Structure formats: structure tokens, C-alpha cells
From TrEMBL, chain A:
Originating organism: Halochromatium salexigens
Presence of keyword Cell membrane: yes
Pfam families associated with the record: CcmD
GO cellular component: plasma membrane
Protein name: Heme exporter protein D
Subcellular compartments: Cell inner membrane
From TrEMBL, chain B:
UniProt family annotation: Belongs to the CcmB/CycW/HelB family.
Name of the featured protein: Heme exporter protein B
Gene Ontology, cellular component aspect: plasma membrane
Species the sequence originates in: Halochromatium salexigens
Function according to Swiss-Prot or TrEMBL: Required for the export of heme to the periplasm for the biogenesis of c-type cytochromes.
GO MF term set: heme transmembrane transporter activity
Keywords: Cell inner membrane, Cell membrane, Cytochrome c-type biogenesis, Membrane, Transmembrane, Transmembrane helix, Transport
GO annotation, biological process: cytochrome c biosynthetic process; cytochrome complex assembly
Length: 70, 223, 253
């Protein structure tokens, strides 16, 4: 086991390279997930702000959907 | 078409002659940057002779890039640029004329001052000639490529810094062969020919493609 | 003749759910391929390569280094390609695709440089050398940074898209010239520190995990770019009716 982590004395280089690669990919995945959630929340809030005004206009031509409740 | 070209060229030069400090600022920026290097890296003759070509070219790059910001900016602010766009003349020709005017005002002075700068770095007479030739062929390429960046960053906040970020990587080929020509001239003057041919090829390519790209960029920025 | 109307998928509203369905699949494929590649690369390969001056265990960095370098270049082609398509056909989705590809491409460029430095130290004795490929990769990194900087500096989305797209294409045209100038700083002769690589000369036990990792990272790029694309689509289309329905459905999940 130790031998595997040691990589013949070059463990620092090998794990530095692999660690940075998969560390950064993981950070990118988390960042993408976070920004998606933030966007959903932000747009949701925007829509709720606008909903009362649009509901009045929309109710005449659209069947009410869940997003247009005042 | 040539008439349009000369009109824009003459206008830009006349305007610049009325505000001569702008031209001199670029020139003195170049001289100051070049003069700072020996103070930073030490003034040993051999070392300076080795660093000289690269330093002069990097300084020329920075100087021509700083001047680029003003290439379209003044015309953009007072609305002339939009008028030019509406004239129905081929925009690429207008851009080429502006670039040529810009080079005459900022690039050509650098070429002419080169011997003085070369003296500071103890370059030989041969190297001075090669440097002037390389600068004369290379700096127009810088202006042409830079025009694309100037058109893209038109009217943006922090445009100058952004412009350098976009354009400097694209200046690499000119830097490599421009400085290379001068460095090689110290060894064998005959070896400099391929460098100058390559720079000329860049100049031809850039003068064909860059005005088109810059014109497209102007359209994008102004629509 | 195929008569599929490709422009049907060019509408952000149509592509949003497709991307959503594809992401998990690309994610799974990426995870599987990367795990296979890692296992193979670490356990089924020799500890040393070559004869008199062997590459020791550090050569295993190749399994992330080469795939990241390939992906960094490929994603720049993708970016410039979608930019060109966007400028020609004036499709909004193409610009969004280009914008979504840029951060992942920059990430891989950085990784190629980082892993290259860690490989160079034990094998060349230096973290950095002004070798043609290293320098080209560094310049590619600058091109990515320039693209993203220009895009984020322009507030008007349409202008930002088109200006950055033009920059990407200018960059692509310049790349061969830059590469030439870095590769042959002296036109009388060319030299390089990297060994001339020829896929045939690489041993199969190295080549297979390397290719597996490459395809793994490729699938990862698909997933990451699509995920970013979906967020961009939502942000830009936040005024339209279909986004309202999406938000109503997904915000609670």
C-alpha cells in the first residue's frame, strides 16, 4: 500500500498532478451545481416579483399555471 | 476607392498634427521603457548587447499597443465613426487608411529613433540597419492586428487593459522574428534574410485580412 | 439525403431539456472511463519505461497530461467553431455553446500546464522550459482568458457574443502562425525539447489507458459544457414563458 502511494519516490509529482486534475474537476462540478441553483432561485424570485402584474394580464388568455399565482 | 483612402488618411494626419503631444507621448514612452532596462538588469556591455533586440521589440510592442487605444476612440466619441459607417464606402478601406495614418504617427517614429536606442545597447552598425528594417516591416503588422482589438474593445470601460490582454498574445510571431533578426545579425548578416521575408509575409497577410476583421469588429461594436 | 431540420435544435427552448437528459449519461460515461483509465494506468502498467535512461513512475502523469492538453486544444476548436456558426447563421444557441465551452477549456489548459510542470521536473529537471509546446499551451491559455475577459467586459449580450466570437476566430487564424514562430524561432532550423511523438511508438499498455482517459475527459467536457449551457440559457431566456414553467417545476426539487 505504502509502495503504491510512494510511486517509487515520485509520489509528490504523480499525486500532485492527479490531485490537481481531479480536484479542479470536482470544484468545477460543484461550482456548476451552485451556479445552477443560484440561477434558479434568482429567476424564481424575479418571476414571483413580476407574477401579480402578469397574472392579471395572463389570466385572460392563458390557463393558470403554477407560476402565475399572485 | 483610393480617393476615400487618401481622404481619411489626410484627415487623420491633419488632426494628429494639431495635437502633436499624442505622437510624442508614444515616442517618449518607447524611449523611457528602453532606458529603464539597463538600470534594472545592470549595464554590462555584453549583457546589454544580448538583451538589446528583445528589449527594443517588447518596448515597441507596448508602445504601439498603448497608442492603439486612440485609433478609433476619438472618432467613436464624437460620432464620426458612425458617419463613416453610413457613407456606404467599403469599411475595410476606411479602416486600412486609419491604420496607415496611425502607423505613420506612432510606428514610423519608432523606426526612426531606433539607431539612438541601439546606441544605448552597444549594437553594431549592421544590427542597427537590420533593426530598422525589421521594425519598419514589423510595426505595421502590430498596428494592423491591433486595430482588430481596438475595434472590439471600442467604448468599453477598462478598454486599455483589456486590449493588451487580447492583443499581446497575437503579437508573439512578430516579436519572435523581429527580435530574432536583430539577434542573428550579430552572428551573420546573411542569415537575417529569412526573418525579414517572414515578417514581410506577415505584413502582406495582415494587410489583407486584418482590415476585414477590424471592419467586422467595428460593425459589431457599433450596431 | 437526410432531411432533419437541424435548426429545430438550435432553439434554446428545445435544447434545454435535451441537454438536461444528456448530462447524466455523459457524467456516467465519464466516470466509468476515468475509473477504468486510472485502474489500468496505475495497476496494469510497468513501473519503468524505456531502456538506458528510463522514465520512472512519474511517467504516469501522462494519463492526465496528454488528455488535458488534447482537450484544451479540442475545446478551443469547439469554441471557435460554434463562434463561426453563430456569426454565419446568427443562431443564439451557438454563441451560448461557445461561451459555455470557454471556462472548461481554460481549466484543461491550466491542467495541461500544471501536470506538464510536475512531469518536467523529474524528467527534464525543470518545472518550466521555453519549449515550443509549453509556450503554445501558455498562449492558448491567454487566448481563453482573452475570450472570457472580452465577453464579460461587454454588458450588451448580443455585442458580447459577436465580439468574443470574432476574437475567437482571429485567435484560431493566428494559432498556426504563433505555433510556427514558437516552433522555429530560427527559420534556418527548428528544434524541440519534446520527443517527437508518434502514436505507433507508444506501448499499448500506455496508449490504451491514455485514450480511455481522453474519452473520459471528453465525456466530462460534454457534461460540464451542457450544464453551464443550461444555466446560461435560463439566465438569458428568463423572460420567456417556458422558463417560467421550468422554474415552477425545478425550483422545488
Amino acid at each position: 500500500m505504502m509502495e503504491f502511494f510512494n510511486q517509487g519516490g515520485y509520489g509528490g509529482y504523480v499525486w500532485g498532478a492527479f490531485g490537481m486534475t481531479f480536484g479542479l474537476l470536482l470544484i468545477e462540478i460543484l461550482q456548476l451545481r451552485g451556479s445552477r441553483r443560484a440561477t434558479l432561485i434568482r429567476i424564481g424570485r424575479l418571476l414571483r416579483l413580476r407574477a401579480p402584474r402578469q397574472a392579471a394580464a395572463a389570466s385572460s388568455r392563458r390557463q393558470g399555471t403554477s407560476g402565475t399565482q399572485p | 476607392m483610393f480617393k476615400v483612402f487618401y481622404c481619411v488618411l489626410a484627415r487623420d494626419i491633419t488632426l494628429a498634427m494639431r495635437r502633436r503631444t499624442d505622437v510624442l507621448t508614444t515616442l517618449f514612452f518607447f524611449i523611457i521603457v528602453v532606458s529603464l532596462f539597463p538600470l534594472g538588469v545592470g549595464s554590462e556591455r555584453e549583457q546589454l548587447r544580448m538583451l538589446g533586440p528583445g528589449v527594443v521589440w517588447v518596448a515597441a510592442l507596448l508602445a504601439s499597443m498603448l497608442a492603439l487605444e486612440r485609433l478609433f476612440a476619438a472618432d467613436y466619441e464624437d460620432g464620426t465613426l458612425e458617419q463613416l459607417l453610413l457613407t456606404g464606402q467599403p469599411l475595410a478601406v476606411l479602416v486600412l487608411a486609419k491604420v496607415v495614418a496611425h502607423w505613420l504617427l506612432t510606428g514610423l517614429p519608432l523606426v526612426l529613433i531606433a539607431p539612438l536606442v541601439a546606441m544605448q545597447y552597444h549594437l553594431s552598425a549592421n544590427a542597427v540597419w537590420v533593426m530598422m528594417a525589421a521594425l519598419a516591416i514589423g510595426t505595421p503588422v502590430l498596428s494592423l492586428i491591433g486595430a482588430i482589438g481596438a475595434a472590439l474593445t471600442l467604448g468599453l470601460r477598462g478598454g486599455g487593459i483589456l486590449l493588451s490582454l487580447l492583443i499581446l498574445p497575437l503579437y508573439v510571431p512578430v516579436l519572435v522574428y523581429g527580435a530574432g533578426a536583430v539577434a542573428v545579425s550579430a552572428i551573420d548578416i546573411a542569415d537575417t534574410e529569412p526573418y525579414l521575408y517572414l515578417l514581410s509575409a506577415f505584413l502582406l497577410g495582415a494587410s489583407l485580412l486584418a482590415p476585414l476583421a477590424a471592419a467586422a469588429a467595428l460593425r459589431i461594436s457599433l450596431e | 439525403m437526410m432531411t432533419t431540420n437541424w435548426f429545430k435544435f438550435a432553439s434554446p427552448a428545445a435544447f434545454y431539456p435535451i441537454a438536461g437528459r444528456l448530462i447524466p449519461w455523459f457524467g456516467r460515461i465519464a466516470a466509468a472511463l476515468v475509473l477504468i483509465g486510472l485502474f489500468w494506468g496505475f495497476f496494469l502498467t510497468a513501473n519503468q519505461l524505456g531502456g538506458s535512461n528510463p522514465q520512472k513512475e512519474y511517467y504516469r502523469i501522462i494519463f492526465v497530461h496528454v488528455p488535458s492538453a488534447w482537450m484544451s486544444m479540442w475545446l478551443y476548436l469547439v469554441l471557435a467553431g460554434w463562434s463561426a456558426i453563430g456569426l454565419v447563421f446568427n443562431t443564439r444557441l451557438s454563441f451560448m455553446m461557445a461561451k459555455a465551452a470557454a471556462p472548461t477549456g481554460a481549466l484543461f489548459t491550466f491542467l495541461a500546464l500544471w501536470t506538464g510542470a510536475l512531469w518536467g521536473r523529474p524528467s527534464w529537471g525543470t518545472y518550466w522550459d521555453w519549449d515550443p509546446r509549453l509556450t503554445s499551451e501558455l498562449l492558448l491559455f491567454f487566448l481563453y482568458i482573452g475570450y472570457m475577459a472580452l465577453h464579460s467586459a461587454i454588458d450588451d449580450t448580443r455585442r458580447a457574443d459577436r465580439a468574443a466570437a470574432l476574437l475567437a476566430i482571429v485567435g484560431l487564424v493566428m494559432v498556426p502562425v504563433i505555433f510556427l514562430s514558437i516552433n522555429c524561432p530560427d527559420p534556418n532550423q527548428c528544434a524541440a525539447l519534446h520527443q517527437r511523438s508518434d502514436p505507433g511508438s507508444i506501448h499499448l499498455s500506455i496508449l490504451i489507458p491514455m485514450l480511455t482517459m481522453t474519452f473520459g475527459l471528453w465525456a466530462y467536457s460534454f457534461a460540464a459544457v451542457f450544464a453551464r449551457l443550461r444555466t446560461i440559457i435560463l439566465t438569458r431566456e428568463s423572460d420567456s414563458a417556458w422558463v417560467r414553467d421550468v422554474i415552477a417545476k425545478e425550483a422545488t426539487v
